[in-house]
From TrEMBL:
This is Dihydrofolate synthase/folylpolyglutamate synthase. It catalyses: (6R)-5,10-methylenetetrahydrofolyl-(gamma-L-Glu)(n) + L-glutamate + ATP = (6R)-5,10-methylenetetrahydrofolyl-(gamma-L-Glu)(n+1) + ADP + phosphate + H(+); (6S)-5,6,7,8-tetrahydrofolyl-(gamma-L-Glu)(n) + L-glutamate + ATP = (6S)-5,6,7,8-tetrahydrofolyl-(gamma-L-Glu)(n+1) + ADP + phosphate + H(+); 10-formyltetrahydrofolyl-(gamma-L-Glu)(n) + L-glutamate + ATP = 10-formyltetrahydrofolyl-(gamma-L-Glu)(n+1) + ADP + phosphate + H(+); 7,8-dihydropteroate + L-glutamate + ATP = 7,8-dihydrofolate + ADP + phosphate + H(+). Pathway: Cofactor biosynthesis; tetrahydrofolylpolyglutamate biosynthesis; Cofactor biosynthesis; tetrahydrofolate biosynthesis; 7,8-dihydrofolate from 2-amino-4-hydroxy-6-hydroxymethyl-7,8-dihydropteridine diphosphate and 4-aminobenzoate: step 2/2. GO terms for molecular function: dihydrofolate synthase activity; tetrahydrofolylpolyglutamate synthase activity. The lineage of its organism: Bacteria, Pseudomonadati, Pseudomonadota, Alphaproteobacteria, Hyphomicrobiales. Residues 46-266 form the Mur ligase central domain.
Length: 439
């Protein structure tokens, strides 16, 4: 049997563009496949710029704690493609098996019969086939890019559509103003379905609410229809259905409070409001989402650092992601002071200066590294130059390992806190090299 890697490589050659936002090709293929998108469990569709994956992770943790069967579709993956497709199982979902993935890929490839189609369209079709073949109580479906013309926007009647915080990213595809990006994200709102809008800046909030009203969706707006805040070390969520007094989320950073609140709001809006309070409590404590302020405590890369150093990993890569990540690092600094060293690799398509600027005055140094096997990656010296122009001390290294090992050459007053960040692709390289891939 062909390995999934062979089939994935073939899919890359079926369309000249890696990204070509349109629904025509996926709708054609799904029709030939017998419309698997019409044979799905209730779907919670999640778009936005930042926090999509974390919001989905909170929902999955809560639902599975309640004993429900949950399918999950997210992208991109960190180490293996299989991470994108989580199939519901009693006791908790599992990444799709190699056998099932290859069978779905081969079926979709045969039905497509060589017609032009993007990699994401082909693989999403395979995911929908798999989800339609396995029973579940709910499917948590993450938007790939944008919303209106995203491949996942073939679900016509979602149980709820969710938009997490919107900010500038993918400007070459979605527009160079946050209002334009919000309009694209709002394209997942459907008539009659709840439109859950996470707390937003005023401009995107206005666009999202207006679009929800325009299509006849039922807006459920953060800060108005639901609130979430910290009180006495607890997470307090409230909406018209009542109040939940919960333990603080396992995922660190205050931005995760917003994601947790949005997840709860989405579940309640989608008809899962009667879950026991214990499920929401367990969800806060059991949630797991790799490469989002993940602390690495073991592995090959950890052993390269000075004794006592902390190693953190985050896939943040846009200006808003840099802002919330810097805030989280500042919060850690208040609790446990340590010199912050940033190991950074970025793509040329991202606003790397905007991402790094929030760390000015917080980070002692930026160690710039290349990203393995990514044609769009910035050279390490270019990343270092961008960091210097953002007001940060920076140097470049030929590899991630060399950058981490260099921290042993400095005499530290306190062991450093090392944060690897700048790209989810870099995060994937880190987890693979460290020997701690997602499971």
């Amino acid at each position: 049997m062909e390995a999934s890697e062979v089939l994935l490589a073939r899919f890359l050659a079926l369309h000249p563009k890696a990204i070509d936002l349109s629904l025509e090709r996926i709708e054609r293929l799904l029709e030939k496949l017998g419309h698997p998108e019409r044979r799905l469990p209730p779907v919670i569709h999640v778009g936005g710029t930042n926090g999509k994956g974390s919001t989905i992770a909170f929902m999955r943790a809560i639902l599975e704690a309640a004993g429900l069967m949950v399918h999950v579709y997210t992208s991109p993956h960190l180490v293996r493609f299989h991470e994108r497709i989580r199939i519901a199982r009693p006791g908790g979902g599992r990444f799709v098996s190699e056998t099932d993935l290859v069978e779905a890929f081969r079926h979709c490839e045969a039905v497509n019969a060589g017609a032009p189609i993007t990699f994401f369209e082909m693989t999403t079709a395979a995911a929908l086939v798999l989800f339609s073949q396995h029973p579940a109580d709910v499917l948590l479906l993450e938007v790939g890019l944008g919303g209106r013309f995203d491949t996942t926007n073939v679900v016509s009647h979602p149980a709820a559509a969710v938009v997490t915080p919107v900010s500038l990213d993918h400007a070459d595809f979605l527009g160079n103003r946050v209002t334009l990006i919000a309009a694209e994200k709002a394209g997942i709102f459907k008539k009659g379905a709840p439109a859950v809008i996470a707390p937003q800046d005023p401009e995107p909030a206005a666009v999202l609410e207006a679009q929800a009203e325009r299509v006849g969706a039922r807006p459920f707006v953060g800060g108005q229809d639901f609130t979430v805040h910290e009180e006495n070390g607890r997470l307090v969520y409230q909406d018209e259905q009542g109040l939940l007094d919960l333990p603080p989320p396992r995922l660190p950073g205050r931005h995760q409070h917003v994601n947790a609140g949005t997840a709860i709001a989405a579940l309640r809006a989608a008809g899962f409001g009667n879950l026991p309070a214990s499920a929401f409590e367990a969800g806060m404590l059991q949630v797991d989402w790799p490469a989002r302020l993940q602390r690495l405590t073991r592995g090959r890369l950890v052993r390269l650092l000075p004794e006592g150093a902390d190693l953190w990993l985050d896939g943040g890569h846009n200006p808003d992601g840099g802002r919330v990540l810097a805030e989280a690092m500042a919060e850690l600094e208040e609790k446990n002071p340590a010199p912050l060293v940033i190991v950074c690799g970025t793509l040329g398509t991202k606003d790397s200066s905007g991402f790094l600027q929030p760390f000015k005055g917080l980070a002692k140094e930026v160690l710039a590294v290349p990203i393995r096997a990514q044609a769009a990656a910035r050279p390490a010296e270019e990343v270092a130059d961008i960091a210097r122009r953002a007001g940060l001390r920076a140097s470049s290294f030929p590899s991630l390992e060399a950058a981490l090992a260099s921290t042993r050459n400095t005499v530290w007053e306190h062991p450093p806190r090392v944060l690897i960040t700048g790209s989810l692709y870099l995060a994937g390289d880190v987890l693979a090299a460290n020997g701690t891939p997602p499971v």
